Queue: 2 jobs
Job 1
Amino acid sequence: MLVSPEEVLETIRMVEMEGLDIRAVTMGINISDCSDTDLESICSKIYEKITRVANGFVDVVEEVEKRYGIPIVNKRIAVTPISTVAAPCHAQSYVPIAEAMDKAAMNTGVDLIGGFSALVHKGMTRSDEVLISSIAEALASTERVCSAVNVASTKSGINMDAIAMMGHVIKRCAELTANRDGIGCVKLAVFANAPEDNPFMPGAFHGYGEGECVINVGVSGPGVIKSVLERLPSCADLGQVAEAIKKTSFKITRMGELVGKEVSERLGAAFGIVDLSLAPTPKVGDSIAEIIELMGIEKCGAHGTTAALALLVDAVKKGGSMASSYVGGLSGTFIPVSEDSGMAEAVGAGAISIEKLEAMTSVCSVGLDMIAIPGDTPPEVISAIIADEMAIGVINNKTTSVRIIPVPGKKAGDLAEFGGLLGKTPIMAVKTLSPKSFIKRGGRIPAPIQSLRN
Amino acid sequence: MADRAIVTVVGRNRVGVLSEVTTEIARMNGNIMDISQKMMGDFFNLIMSVDISDISVGFSAFKERLEKLGEEKGYRVSVQHEKVFLYMHRI
């Protein structure tokens, strides 16, 4: 046998007992050629192209899943940012486009479709403004559509006008889905330095530098890492901990490489990247917080958490980057509060605050994710939370983002429940001191000196 | 390089398991290249490397029939293409 029995059993154990899976296979589709001066034509062209290009996508992914025995949890589509595609039509609202995207997603059998997005890190076009003002209604009236707005980049600085708008958009999103704890907001993220090939939602869109059709894969294995750490002796030093994580991350990422190559070959699409991010689920044992705690921190959020997370993310990157020919997307570690049962528990126990989560985002990817805050949080406070997170991303030349839910009618300490993989979390308190005048000033925070790299 | 599947069988030990599984594989024209068996208490862990380049059915059917056999006879059969193990454990 080319592999040993021990290796076979190890792989099987990772899948069956430790939760190894492929978190997402995302097909990126260029729809810039669906542009038109007539809104209805844009909608029908988008529907036609997506359903044509993604025909058979879900079937192929399911075949590959059976062939290799690795569960592939989500199949998704990401399209060219709609604000560009829709620009020539001069419509006042792009909600019909979101509806067309939603229908196409249902027809092809994918669970989410991203790209109802705009890149406004330097400035906003008229079309970008229409897109942004359509987001709340679009997300409330569709099931599978996701939206991302890139409001900052290291090269361009921070668009504070866009951030001021997004505070209001997030509030409106929550209001329109008030009967479901503001669930509209879980399909919206605000980014700094958004990658063009992120396979995860809601940030996924098909970047302008991409080709016609690409397959990007997101792997996941917090449970696998946790099991490896459980088997380490308690006297193992942090170098040994990092080594164990690195080796395991290699194995996890290799699964993404295999699946990505196979799916793209069968579909005749380009293979994009493997995103080696560790993405937790609410399932017990599949938690980033638990990994932090296994490293020796009493509860995630205590002092030492940021250092432990820095070790984890770096080890994941080192192991993962050897495993794949193309690594990209976010490639870090997610700390989504409601989607990580350990994280939500830490919030409930008072061990972790928004401020600590913000500190943690300086060493890991994604940013402030799936955080529920009081429903009466003013929009300028939400904008200021976003501005803080964007500053971390811009100054440190990394991706950061905010996916935050002001839960209508609920206050700090109440429980917000989003259901399924989205999980549940106690609502976190935010500071009530006002940043209103700061946000009202608007304008653009200039790009930092780090942007001058030539 | 031959197309190979790894068939793993786990269950409570009894006479005839190996014969049942190998007979079904032979029925589909699978050629068994390597077998390893380990006992853990009352349970057996059987791992086979099967050349499937000339099987008379598709991969899905090959997999489904063996897994169904296991369900009927009281043991767990998994069938995975060898590539998944090679990818994980080799650079």
Job 2
Amino acid sequence: MSSGLEKFEAEPLEDGEPWGLEALRARIRLLERGTGRAACDGLALGLPPLDAALPADGLPLAALHEIAPGRPDWDDGPVTGFCLALLVRLAARRPGPVLWLAAGGDLYAPGLAAFGFDPARLIEGRAKGDGEVLWAMEEGLRSGALAAVVAEVAELDATAARRLQLAAESGAVPAFLLRRWSRPGATVPIAAATRWRISAAPAASFALPDSGIAEPRPRWQVELLRCRAGRPGNFLMEWDHATGDFSLVAPFCDRPADAAGVSEDGPAEARRAG
Amino acid sequence: MQLESQRTARQRPAGPARSRVLLRQERGCLLLAAVDARAAAAGLAPGQPLADARAILPDLETAEHDPAADLRALSALAAWCGRFTPWVAPDRSGCDGGGAAGLLLDVTGCAHLFGGEAALLAALVEGLGKQGFAARAALADTPGLAWAVARFGLSEGAGPSAMGAATCAVPPGAAKATLAALPVAALRLAPGQVELLERLGLRRVGDLYDLPAGSLARRFGPMLAHRLAQALGRAKEAISPLTPVPPFVERLALPEPSDAPEAIALGLEALILALCRRLEERGQGARRLVFTLYRADGSLGRLKLGTSRPSREPQHLKRLFAQRLEQVDPGFGVEVMTLAATAAEPLTALQSILPCAAGVSVRGAAVPKAEPPAFGTALCPAQAREATPASEAQLSEVSSSQALLPQALGEVVDRLVNRLGAAGVTRRAPRESHLPERAVAAAPPMGPPAPAPTPTAAWRRPARPRPLRLLPRAQPIEALALLPDHPPAQFRWRRLLHRIAAAEGPERLSPEWWHPEPAKAAEPARDYFRVEDDDGRRYWVYRAEGRWYLHGLFA
């Protein structure tokens, strides 16, 4: 800790760099990670209210992110969709392929292409159980050669999650854990940088392909349940696969998008509103 | 002594005073196929009827002849001999002429490893003797001469007890003199020809030396002259080895057999270092490696692994082997280890990472000769806009990691493949088929994608919606449609009722009538619908012959 502080103090502040409260916050962020500037890098999601809720003005890279379905065993589609949307934005930013680890492996490449993610950048790993998935994930993270590592696991404990977080930091590679269904009570809270819960939401329009849109925009209820150095929130958003953008959706037709769609009071409030 | 009878004797030792023969059946008559030493001494010979043999030796022990097992035993012995040289070939040419099965070893440049030619032969015969085979070994300038000396040039009575007489190293240049004294059967001829030569009084090979080659060929055919030339080294003869000889082999003999895992790991490390040095000298990198343990009991343990890119990085290879080293069983101890690169590819020199200042790009500092895998990003519309916000420091980090990417990526892919299996780590390649489950093929994770059946190897955005997850097998659902051609109004899947709020379709996909398998060609046509239930979950369902199936999940 102390060495990191000295190192940071030795660097003179350059012109244009934030100072005051912002600079102190940045320093705290650096100290928390201890792995330098790259670890504090964020991936902007292109949605101002969401980016503001996240530390580092975006999704922290070099960290572990947990994405859980709103309703286990039924919301696998939305969870996959949200994770892929993050990967689409990430793939534009980082070189290398994405490693996707699962026990079953039912990802459908033409569907990914329709979603805006190039299947040629995906390496699929099929493991025999959660243990092997976690081993492979750690190997992939430590190598630092991948754009991201995604793993579908049912159960893991806090120690395993901590190992993954350290591996993600050492390799500066973002890690996404997709939670599959596991027996009730087996899920323990883990130390992830962010924890998301994704549920399906009825789409506004169900466009026919004749209208020129190959795929209608999927709509999700995205809950940011936990976020280190950020603020949890609840968002109803759409994904535009043609442009690779998230957009907020007004819960009611007659309210403008910037006034609604975000509620920061927590999930319960949002569920009532949504 | 013949391999056939020895193999059987090893399995079931005969009683102290009984002779043993192997039998084969020919035209309803039992004939001797092989005899052991005691039976041979009593005057029995292969080809005799069993009745005659019983008349000579009434208490004969018999067993059935099994040529397939003999061949297997000979191949196993050939593999065992791999500790002396990789050039080992099983030789069954002697069996037809009444001789014994043998092994041909090319030990050019190997003898010094064992302390000379005589010591090599002694070690060979001793090792075979420990396994229960009495063997005679000869070393000569040509395979033909060695064959002849091993069978006819050693005193007949030499057994395992008289080890010294069971081996003979013909000094270089003495080929002609040595061969002259041997019977003509030593030339690997057909039995009929041997008989003919002996009838003409040509009993020794030396008798043939003075005859003109032309008349020999006219009288006895081209084979005799050819065999003579081969034995004397005038005609070439190649030993075709049992397994292809790998281009790079390193060998390590332990001072005494050891089964300690640490000893094996240490030996392996030394072999890896030596092999990597050899590879570097030649500018090659290993793609496939075989680690072979020659156990004290004559059996072999093998560990094979492959790399996704040519590699000669000792640390990387060590890690790959370490993952699986416990899979090989040292048995009762390991005498010799070899590490071979059975496949190697050119690999240009890699420069280690330069300690670079921020902002200096090291792109291109370490680029192997092989093309880095193309990870196309043509499909990512966000790329162009997202490329800007990275600051200068970030850019340098990205470019330096890009330069090192192929190597680091290859190494991590190797480790994954090593543990999950080659089928467990794949990339997806498009396949030209409109049936959803056949539109995707598995490709190796790193190498060039498998040759695509059609020229369009790149992924395109599908014209119609496709799900993100496709169930491995479409699952039957109970669905209710208002009209026969309409999408379902509700369906039950996994015991939960889904009310359909919106639906889109149908998209008709016909079976591939040109498919070679009749069952696949005659599948019913499917009408696909994209449906969304009350909660907003989107599914891909289809109807085939009035029945409904769920096939995929949308985002």
